[in-house]
Request: fold
Amino acid sequence: MSTTGMPPLPASTRWIVRHGESAANAGGATFDPGDIPLSARGEAQARDLAHRLTGAPDLIVHSPFLRTYQTAASTIARYPDAPIVVWPIQEFTYLSPHRCAGTTAMQRRPMVEEYWRRCDPAFVDGAGAESFSAFLARVRLLHVRLQDAPEAFIIVFAHGQIMQALRLITAMPDADDRTLMALFPAHDRDNPIANTR
Reply:
């Protein structure tokens, strides 16, 4: 899941890369989770990633969210013949965007802690939010699609929590959703994924 080092590509390669630094990552207030742009630093990270690639991808995937498209844009510009698809791998929106509009990550911290303490994978916080079980269903679909895809080299521009959940379900394929939810916050905290890594 990391692009560091960029060794020669084996016969089948799947890179899953977190988007560049976003305005939210940089501490800014946000409104719509899907419309959060990259920061200037994130744009530079995206350009750097595209220049580090050693071969053309056979497929470029990004989520419906703006920050993954903006991260992919430099790679798309470098390899304009590569097919591009949008998959439902957007970040996990577990807090209702209506409750969180105009807030920073620091201001949302009490709501975040309350959500994870509840540890109810079926709970939906409100309009525009998603349950943890629905999130995991999307991650499991990603896992299957990457296994079944015929392309040799796929680069997926995704989000940190998607990547963390993919790690967990790969390591614990038989775990139920409640177990995975109980483990997820510590796993996410203790195994950080840097932007464009």
